[in-house]
Amino acid sequence: MSQLVCQRCGKCCNDLVQQDRGVLRGLSLLPEETHLFPEELVKPYLGIGKRPHMDKFQTIAYQLSSDPCPHLVDNSCNRYDERPTSCRQFPFSLDLDEENEPLLGVDMNCPAAVELINNTDGLLEFTDRDDAERLLELKRRVLENPRRAWVYDLATMKWVRFDKMG
Length: 166
Description:
Layout: E1 2-3, E2 18-20, E3 23-25, E4 27-29, E5 42-48, E6 58-64, E7 72-73, E8 76-77, H1 85-89, E9 92-96, E10 102-106, H2 111-118, E11 124-125, H3 129-144, E12 149-153, E13 158-161
Parallel strand pairs: 1-11
Antiparallel strand pairs: 2-3, 4-6, 5-6, 5-12, 7-8, 9-10, 12-13
């Protein structure tokens, strides 16, 4: 079984803020990970509820609004051992297929992923699958009721209802 060996090239720490379905978004952070970054760089990301300004609205994830990551120093993460879930799962990710089952994705912009795929024996070891499962659970919550799910757009600094996104 082949395992990914990070080359610490820093590519994954750049271009964190991207356009996604019509909104500008940053690196996903779980609520317990917001303390890893300066408060002014952390914004809401995903919310659940009828309207963002209502009492029962709940922010279920946050995002880093900085690009590149503030922990990137000389193409290496200076907080590698305590990096957030999104970083630990990288270059792997889980998404949902047509049957709502987990589908493994591999970011081929990562040199270590390319090396792993090119030299694999057919089996990949995904040691941080639990982290990816936690992020996949957020996607499932959003898809349960897209009319009550919201995404915070870094471009406008406003919430956009998920079912209204491009």
